[in-house]
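Lecture notes, part 5. Sequence design as translation. It can be helpful to think of inverse folding as translation between two languages: the language of shapes and the language of residues. The source text, in structure tokens, appears below.
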């Protein structure tokens, strides 16, 4: 999330979206396009976070699987 929020433009859009959701302090001059952009970037950020979590989890699972396979090979080689 922090990496994605480096860019102030994106950060501002996400803040705007959250303000719209909470109906607090919304500037009246904001047009529909900016609201749509804010919504889009918010959901992109949300998706990126979810994807990163999933990738980390998959990496851990893959590493543990590889360790198990290596151990099984070692055991098989020792038994011969």
């Amino acid at each position: 999330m922090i990496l994605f929020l480096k860019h102030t433009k994106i950060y501002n859009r996400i803040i705007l979206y959250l303000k719209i959701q909470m109906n607090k302090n919304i500037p009246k001059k904001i047009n529909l396009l900016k609201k749509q952009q804010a919504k889009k970037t918010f959901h992109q950020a949300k998706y990126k976070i979810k994807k990163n979590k999933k990738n980390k989890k998959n990496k851990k699972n893959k590493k543990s699987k590889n360790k198990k396979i290596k151990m099984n090979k070692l055991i098989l080689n020792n038994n011969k």
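The translated text above is only one of many valid answers, since several sequences can fold into similar shapes. The mean pLDDT is 73.
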